[in-house]
Each structure stands twice: as C-alpha cells, then as structure tokens.
Amino acid sequence: MKLTRRGFSVGALALSCMISSASGIALAQDKVKLRMSTPASETDQRSVALAEVFGPEVSEFAIYEPHYNASLIAQGSELESIATGDLEMSIASAQELATFFPEFSIFTAGYVHQSAEHQVAVFNDAVMDPFKQKVEDELGVKLLAVMYLGKRHVNLRFPRSEKDVKTPEDLAGVNLRMPGTDAWQFLGRALGANPTPMAFTEVYTALQTGSVDGQDNPLPTVVDAKFYEVTKQVALTQHLVDLNYIAFSKAVWDELSEEQQKAVEKAAVDAAESAREAQLKKEEELVAFLEEQGLELYEPDLEAFRSHVQKAYLESDLAASWPDGALDRINELAK
Length: 335
Ligand code: KDO
Known about the structure:
The chain has helices at 5-22, 45-57, 78-83, 94-100, 116-124, 129-139, 182-190, 203-209, 219-224, 250-255, 258-292, 302-314, 317-320, 326-333; strands at residues 27-28, 31-37, 62-67, 89-93, 141-156, 175-178, 194-197, 214-217, 233-249, 296-298. The protein has 335 residues and is of the alpha/beta class. Strands 1, 2, 3, 4, 5, 6, 7, 8, 9 and 10 form a ten-stranded mixed beta sheet that branches.
C-alpha cells in the first residue's frame, strides 16, 4: 500500500478492525449480533427487505438488529464504524466508499448506470472484483450485494409556474440539498445547481422552512420521507440510477463457518432482490400518488441534462481515478 494520507488512514482502520476482531465479536445467546445502521426509515423498501428476508434467513446463527433514521450512527460514518468494530452492517453508498477510494466515484457519476438490471450486471461482473477486493483488504468491509435505491430526480419547493426546469441552466442558483460528500456535491454542480450538503434526516425541515429550495431522491424516498408534503414539483431528470451496497464486517465474516458465510451472502442477495422488485413497483405506482398530492411531475430536456452531466464528469479529476477500461466495460454491460 502506498503511504498516502488516504492509504494511511484506511490502513489504520483495517488495523483497528483486526484488533476488534481479536477481542471478540458481540455474541448473544451464542448468536452473532448483526447491528445494521442506516439513515433510511423502517418502511423504506431496503429496510423492509433486510428485516423480512435477510434477518430470518440468518436467524439460526445470527441476530439481525436494525437501527433506522441514523439513530445509531450518523449518515456517512457507517463504513468507518464497521472498520473499527462498532457496527456490523450498513446500506453503504458508492459516494461514501468514494471518500476512501476515489475510483468508486465511477458509480456515483450521473447517467452511467442505466437500470436496476444494469447495476446487478455490473456488481456481478469481473470489473467489480478489484473494487470489492480493495474495500475488503483496506477497510475490512465486504460488499455482499447491490441494492436498488432508484432513479434520482430533482424535487423542488416551487410550483412549475415559478420554476420550470427544462435544462441545467434552469437550475442555476437553485439551492439543492445533496448528501454531504464530495461525490454528491460534484453531481449537484454537474446538474447545474448550487448544492448544499445536509444529512438526510434534516431534509424535511429544511424544505419546510425554505432553507433549501429542493432535494434529489427517487420517488419512493420522496414518499417515504414525506418530502411531498413540503415540495411542489419533480423534474424527472433521472440523473442517477442510484444504488447502495449491503456492507458487512469482514471481521465478523471471518468468524463465521463456510456454511454460515454462504447463508449470509445468499440472504443479502435475496434481500436485495426483494427490495429491488418492491422499489421498482413503487417507482411506477407513486407517480399517480404524487400527482394526487398536487405535485407536478414532468420530463425535462433529458439530452441537455445528460450531455451537461457527462461532460462535467469526463473533464473532472474524478474520471482520472477510474480504472482503465472500467467505464467502457460498464457501458457494455448496459446492452
Ligand atoms: C440521501 O441522503 O439523499 C440518500 O438518498 C443517499 C443514499 O445513499 C442513502 O444513504 C439514502 O439517503 C438513505 O438510505 C435514506 O434513504
């Protein structure tokens, strides 16, 4: 490992992870306790699938203990908590991984992933192997499966009569809440907006009080977090087919038998599949629900957004960190 600042800090985390592994893993009734922390609510489809599919599938040897609404660990600190042995699982974003490993920004770039199916093809392809290996070796985290969060759109407080978003130019000066890491902020700027970093759990109040003009998330999240109560329009930009990974402590993994490891992996893949189906269904159904709530949903000039966003990424330092050939392979897998 190169002795860079980043390399040093992940190395230190991996070391403390080994120490915590040696000192023993939380056991209850001889079962491994799997604390999972997420900013998502209990009713979010990813939370539901983990509770209803993952938990029961591993219940012979593990106790799945979910913590919602960032009540255990703050959004963005989950991976570090897994690495230091303070947490066993999370629903991790590529944006969070990119804070440790810049090459993960390839999965945070707008208009790269095309669909839920494409995400699965990429996750299971050899192109993903070095990414997974690095996270495992340097952070002590295993990425077990890819979860579909959905197509992110721009959701604003203003009615369309006040702000009609056709092109990126229409987002100039719009104070758009984006989650708080560089990769997210970059995406906000690439869309043409003025991004404001903010934790997910603060977004509802920020929209209500007008301290931000809008936020971006998939429709199921707009409904689950009740953002529709405090916003008036959704410009269906589809700027990111967003994903999360089921992240699992390598220290815990290493304590499991081979059979248990297989069961954990299968449970994660099954939960991801169940969440994906539920989320895709909700994305379709919720257009009508949101319209009933009085929101205006419409398609902007997608080509204008796509070319603006793609140009921003390709000209950026982020793209310089992407492994040679990775983008081509990802694009091939979309076909
Ligand atoms: C968000 O903060 O907008 C976001 O959608 C980012 C995702 O990566 C994910 O963390 C998600 O929040 C939470 O799980 C809440 O849905």
